[in-house]
Recover the amino acids of this structure.
């Protein structure tokens, strides 16, 4: 970018810039700022410095509010209205669209296909250009019009004697007296029953219990050129009587010609009404699988959960509730043992397969002799014998689960259930008819669910080579182009490893955000302001370049693109950069530097600029601890991991070191670490119920007494949760208040100082501090409570002071201020110290959990773990902990993680950030690609070894830093 272009922004006419004056939202300190329109603007700065307050809570909120207020009052009631931001004036705003990192949907019916609307196009395509097949014979179904049927008959040799029949019953039981009478009433007097022709008066008496084939004789004629009209009328009559079917039988040879106005199989007459888009929707009763209602999974009693200890015998407790401790059920097991000749003291896993099947699924028709002891009445204790089939342990649990009225029994049984693919539709969500419609010719043809299971990369390739013929090609052309364009955008934002049938609730925040981004590009809007929140989250450096290209494409369409971002490549690619700071929380909220990337880099006041120019940097450790250095290295070994796309991976994780798991998006990192390692260790140490992903073994769990997964899920879903309640600070603070003289005189205990229970809280707002006022066509307004003025407590509680401050004032302090104030109390000071160490000195103790970002929530959890007493035998697992963190925050976080490691703990981090990878002791690189092209181990070694590895995408980018 040359100097003349750089200078043009600030001299631009007002129409070419967004002008903000006096922005005071959250911690912003009266910010005045001019941003260029129709450019890619990156807002960066420390966590908590006010980036989101400026981008989302000020610019987006005002852009959205103005647009919504321009609509009618009727339309406004259906839209969520934003609060008016605290700002004097904003000029030059466009309608705003925000693309945040929220999980798309918790609806199990939402998939990548439905969210991107590709599924809607696919349904239309299959309904208009698909070919239905017979589920049994795998041959295309054919449908014919009456004129096609007439032409087929006229093609027979002249003078062929024909009988036109209506097949009214095929393979059906009954006497059919009513049917015959009804047909006679319509003027039909001849019938074909079991291949023989009968007049109405001498019809045979049919047996009710036997199956019969019955045809009504519609007409008898000879093939002649002039019978066209008569044939057409006969066929129409036959189709009307026999559910769109007709038969033309050659009377001399007995040869039959079958016709069907619906799609039908010429062999078994399996037929299908006309194809329509609803048939391919699993959200419509027309297309959904009738067993699972289109969800694709069903809850079943899981044999692996029911047989919790297969190494034990049935008598010794292999199956809880069916051992010696339960005489009623155990007597059944003993009877089964006598019948099938097995010993109840043999380990369950060593019993023959047929015995295990009979025990779990039941004995079917086979009767077993059971001995029961009568429990009550005059004959109590007497034994009686009964012969009947054995119900089976799984069907028994299923029946009890269905029939019980007890919530406790249902809850206990639910522990043995797990979600499994629906056996009817095999997890495809669709009914049989929809599963047997294919698009494409011959072996290239695919059913709609097969397209759904492909990765997006493979789907795009398949549509590019799709060749349809004739009218179908013409009909499909536009729809295929639309699908292809959407798939291309999804692949361009680095999502090529996802599939269209992937459930939306399993997507990470970054993936969900990039899917919405691709949908926006597909919509092709111009003149809009897009506000994005860290779109590079969860992306490998390799995919980052494509993402930047996508954002530039969005800008080139004629839009203003505002991005809150810490990624160095993104900042360098921006047209304009705003650096917020200088600190976090109350120490932030100011614009420290602004201008082109080059100007910000040269500005000594900009912390971001100093990290990017190399003046400040996160150091590479002078010496690494690694496996090779230890005389007898301890490892935890994952053997044969096969979950999702993992291909039988065996890998060792060093105990007591800091290990980074890297690889492109979709290469199998989360499956290996979260779904396999964490879940298996948690199951072993805590008897957790969650099933780990398929693997052969995990060796070395004995090195740990705790496993902690510090993820980015919210620390609470209501405004009543806050950092003080989550970290356990609130309890000692309440106890401290209860120890004061005035509290003791009044008899107040710690409960008095909780805003969650009646007593000490303000009852007017029930301890919320705000009252909701419903405004109907305007957004609901939350106003501070008149009674407590937003302090949450009643007057008597607020009269209790410790060192001159009441409970509400303490909760309103930042962590930093609270540390200075509460230093004399060691139990509180230690927790506040750890919150400062993870870089959260700026958050308030009573700040609502709902206002914390994912990265902040993760660090609150990390602080809680750090404040606990440490045994030095903990396995810590972190999934992308640098999300939302500035270079300076990452430096702080790494110090904390290295401190944990130095205490003897094992740290496993999934991460794309190169600054974290370069400081790790050990790196496990997965790949080489995402989806099907991934799932293998590229390398396990030091960062230096990875940087030299030619097959590693991560190594290629790491070379620059080492």
């Amino acid at each position: 970018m040359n100097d003349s272009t750089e200078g043009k922004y600030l001299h631009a006419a007002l129409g070419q810039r967004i002008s903000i004056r006096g922005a005071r939202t959250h911690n912003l300190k009266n910010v005045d700022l001019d941003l260029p329109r129709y450019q890619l603007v990156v807002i960066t700065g420390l966590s908590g410095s006010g980036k989101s307050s400026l981008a989302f809570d000020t610019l987006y909120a005002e852009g959205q509010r103005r647009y919504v207020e321009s609509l009618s009052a009727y339309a406004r009631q259906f839209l969520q209205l934003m609060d008016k931001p605290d700002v004097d004036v904003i000029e030059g705003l466009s309608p705003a669209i925000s693309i945040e990192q929220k999980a798309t949907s918790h609806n199990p019916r939402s998939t990548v296909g439905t969210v991107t609307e590709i599924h809607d196009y696919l349904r239309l395509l299959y309904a208009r250009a698909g070919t239905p097949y017979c589920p049994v014979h795998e041959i295309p179904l054919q449908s014919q019009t009456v004129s096609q049927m007439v032409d087929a008959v006229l093609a027979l040799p002249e003078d062929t004697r024909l009988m036109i029949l209506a097949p009214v019953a095929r393979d059906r039981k009954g006497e059919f007296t009513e049917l015959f009478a009804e047909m006679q009433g319509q003027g039909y007097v001849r019938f074909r029953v079991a291949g023989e022709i009968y007049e109405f008066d001498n019809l045979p008496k049919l047996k009710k219990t036997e199956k019969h084939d019955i045809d009504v004789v519609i007409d008898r004629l000879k093939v002649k050129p002039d019978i066209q009209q008569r044939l057409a009328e006969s066929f129409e009559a036959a189709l009307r009587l026999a559910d769109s079917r007709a038969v033309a039988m050659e009377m001399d040879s007995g040869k039959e010609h079958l016709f069907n106005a619906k799609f039908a199989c010429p062999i078994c007459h399996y037929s299908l009404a006309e194809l329509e888009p609803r048939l391919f929707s699993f959200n419509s009763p027309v297309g959904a699988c009738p067993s699972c209602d289109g969800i694709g999974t069903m809850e079943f009693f899981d044999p692996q959960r029911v047989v919790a200890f297969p190494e034990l015998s049935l008598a010794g407790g292999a199956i809880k509730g069916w051992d010696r401790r339960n005489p009623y059920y155990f007597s059944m097991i003993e009877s089964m043992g006598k019948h099938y000749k097995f010993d109840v003291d043999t380990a369950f896993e060593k019993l023959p397969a047929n015995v295990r099947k009979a025990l779990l699924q039941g004995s079917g028709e086979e009767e077993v002799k059971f001995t029961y002891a009568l429990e009550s009445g005059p004959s109590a204790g007497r034994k009686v014998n009964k012969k009947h089939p054995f119900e089976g342990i799984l069907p028994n649990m299923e029946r009890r689960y269905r029939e019980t009225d007890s919530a406790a029994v249902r809850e206990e049984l639910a522990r043995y259930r797990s979600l499994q693919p629906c056996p009817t539709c095999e997890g495809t969500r669709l009914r049989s008819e929809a599963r047997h419609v294919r698009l494409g010719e011959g072996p290239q043809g695919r059913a709609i669910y097969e397209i759904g299971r492909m990765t997006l990369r493979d789907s795009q390739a398949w549509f590019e080579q799709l060749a349809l013929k004739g009218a179908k090609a013409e009909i499909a052309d536009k729809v295929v182009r639309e699908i292809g364009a959407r798939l291309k955008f999804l692949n361009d934002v680095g999502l090529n490893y996802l599939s269209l049938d992937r459930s939306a609730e399993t997507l990470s925040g970054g993936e969900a955000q990039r899917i919405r981004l691709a949908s926006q590009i597909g919509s092709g809007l111009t003149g809009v302001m897009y506000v994005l929140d860290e779109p590079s989250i969860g992306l490998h450096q390799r995919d980052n370049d494509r993402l930047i290209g996508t954002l530039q494409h969005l800008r080139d369409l004629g839009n203003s693109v505002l991005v809150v971002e810490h990624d160095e490549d993104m900042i360098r690619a921006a047209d304009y950069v705003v650096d917020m700071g200088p600190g976090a929380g109350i120490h932030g909220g100011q614009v420290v530097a602004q201008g082109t990337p080059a100007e910000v880099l040269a500005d000594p006041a900009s912390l971001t600029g100093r990290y990017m120019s190399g003046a400040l940097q996160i150091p590479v450790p002078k010496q690494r601890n690694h496996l090779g250095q230890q005389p007898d290295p301890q490892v935890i070994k994952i053997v044969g991991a096969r979950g999702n796309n993992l291909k039988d991976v065996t890998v060792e994780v060093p105990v007591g070191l800091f290990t980074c798991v890297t690889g492109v998006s979709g290469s199998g990192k989360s499956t290996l670490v979260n779904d396999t390692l964490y879940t298996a260790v948690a199951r072993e140490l805590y008897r957790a119920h969650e099933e780990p992903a398929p693997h052969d073994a995990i060796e070395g769990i004995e090195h740990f007494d705790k496993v902690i997964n510090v993820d980015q899920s919210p620390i609470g879903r209501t405004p009543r949760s806050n950092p003080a309640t989550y970290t356990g600070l609130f309890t000692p603070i309440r106890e401290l208040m209860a120890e004061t003289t005035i509290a003791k005189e009044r008899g107040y205990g710690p409960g008095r100082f909780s805003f969650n229970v009646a007593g000490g809280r303000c009852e007017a707002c029930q301890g919320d501090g705000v009252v909701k006022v419903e405004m109907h066509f305007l957004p609901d307004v939350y106003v501070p409570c008149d009674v407590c003025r937003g302090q949450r407590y009643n007057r008597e509680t607020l009269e209790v002071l410790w060192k001159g401050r009441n409970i509400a004032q303490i909760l309103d302090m930042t962590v930093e201020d609270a540390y200075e104030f509460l230093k004399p109390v060691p139990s509180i000071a230690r927790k506040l110290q750890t919150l400062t160490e993870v870089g959260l000195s700026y958050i308030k103790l009573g700040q609502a959990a709902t206002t914390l970002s994912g990265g902040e929530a993760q660090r609150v959890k990390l602080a809680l773990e750090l404040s606990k007493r440490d045994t030095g035998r903990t396995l810590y697992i972190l999934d992308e902990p640098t999300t939302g963190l500035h270079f300076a925050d990452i430096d702080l976080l790494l110090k904390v993680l290295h401190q944990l490691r130095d205490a003897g703990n094992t740290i496993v981090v999934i991460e794309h950030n190169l600054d974290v990878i370069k400081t790790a002791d050990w790196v496990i690189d997965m790949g080489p690609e995402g989806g099907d092209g991934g799932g293998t181990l590229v390398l396990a070694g030091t960062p230096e070894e990875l940087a030299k590895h030619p097959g590693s995408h991560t190594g290629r980018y790491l070379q620059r830093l080492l």
